[in-house]
Specification:
Keywords: Electron transport, Heme, Iron, Metal-binding, Signal, Transport. By secondary structure, this protein is mainly α. About 70% of the residues lie in helices and about 0% in strands.
Length: about 150
């Protein structure tokens, strides 16, 4: 099985996640499904950056598009009333929703900028991951509940 086949399978699986997401919008499950999409995209790019997979522009484009689109809708999943329960997100999100939304918008914008000047090789993909990872890390540092 070649890398394009695997990438296509990942994208099709992502569509299934989108269908589930539409039914569960605003729930912990929907938020988790969106983060798994971002994680899968970052994983595909990481494999290229590390040389584990050959550079494939289509895989990089798909990953960046997924990250950008997911970041746009992610903050909308934190509606009032979803801040409590067994799988509650950090209350800091609701306390500073403007910052949370700004961070998601920056991730989306950075992914779009990288997409517009698509990295041409594994090293470029690695550089893109540093930019995107800084966005993810900053948000997780401020808003993710740390579990042991």
């Amino acid at each position: 099985m070649n890398f394009r086949t695997i990438a296509a399978a990942v994208l099709v699986a992502g569509m299934g996640v989108t269908a589930v997401f539409a039914q569960q919008q605003g729930t912990h499950e929907a938020r988790e499904a969106l983060m798994k999409k971002v994680g899968g995209s970052a994983g595909a790019m990481t494999a290229i950056a590390k040389g584990e997979k050959p550079y494939d522009a289509e895989v990089v484009k798909a990953a960046l598009t997924t990250i950008s689109e997911t970041a746009k809708v992610f903050p909308d999943q934190f509606k009032p009333g979803t801040e409590t329960g067994d799988k509650a997100a950090s209350p800091k999100i609701w306390e500073n929703m403007d910052d949370f939304k700004a961070r998601a918008a920056k991730l989306s914008s950075d992914a779009e900028k990288i997409l517009a000047q698509l990295p041409a090789d594994a090293a470029g993909v690695g550089g893109a991951l540093k930019t995107l990872g800084a966005n993810c890390g900053g948000c997780h540092e401020n808003y993710r509940i740390k579990t042991d």
